[in-house]
Design brief:
There is one protein chain. This protein has about 200 residues and is mostly helical. It has eleven helices and five strands, in the order ααααααβαβαβαβαβα. The longest helix has 14 residues.
């Protein structure tokens, strides 16, 4: 759960006092940080400067230490790992810090590979570039429209988690096969799949 990290960095960089709840209600409705700042009267230059600082700081180790696991994630990964090979697929900038963070959160052990686009390619393209074979009975689980799109491009089943970055309404626009509350519900779908 990176919500605390993103909110605290937003407030620190902008000085714009916005409550955690208001920030995330806005973000989960597909509003960008830039949009929030524009609505608050920030100039285009100030928004541009913010975005540069954001990208430089969002994945610093001190900021990553603010992230915590959603309740039940470790158990869900353990259960699914009994019947499936697991991969992390993300757009994070630093694969090294990503692995370090997964180790810190004690979940790196569940994954066969950790894949990061480093914001240079699409998630689906990265899977193909790495030669990972996927089948229609496989699953893409994520909390963004980009995750659902990647799953559709790979022709796998898609599960959208509503506990993350986007709300149910926003995620439903991407047409996932399933919309579930959290990783535990996703794990239940996967482990009860006939192909497992």
């Amino acid at each position: 759960d990176s919500r605390k990290r993103l909110h605290s960095l937003f407030v620190r960089l902008t000085g714009h006092e916005m409550s955690f709840a208001t920030y995330w209600e806005t973000k989960r409705n597909y509003r960008s940080n830039g949009w929030i700042l524009e609505q608050a009267g920030f100039s285009a230059d100030a928004v541009s400067q913010f975005q540069q600082s954001w990208m430089a700081q969002i994945e610093s180790w001190d900021n990553l230490l603010l992230d915590v696991l959603y309740h039940g994630v470790d158990e869900a990964l353990h259960e699914v790992g009994k019947c499936a090979e697991l991969y992390v697929l993300t757009a994070r900038q630093s694969p090294e810090l990503l692995c370090q963070q997964l180790e810190h959160l004690a979940i790196l052990k569940h994954f066969s590979q950790v894949l990061s686009t480093a914001q240079k390619t699409s998630k689906a393209d990265l899977v193909c570039q790495r030669g990972i074979l996927v089948a229609t009975e496989d699953f893409m689980v994520g909390d963004t429209g980009e995750d659902i799109l990647a799953g559709k491009q790979l022709r796998v089943q898609t599960i959208a988690l509503t506990c993350g970055f986007r709300n149910r309404k926003a995620l439903s626009h991407h047409g996932p096969d399933w919309l579930v509350e959290d990783a535990r519900a996703a794990a239940e779908l996967i482990t009860q799949s006939p192909a497992r």
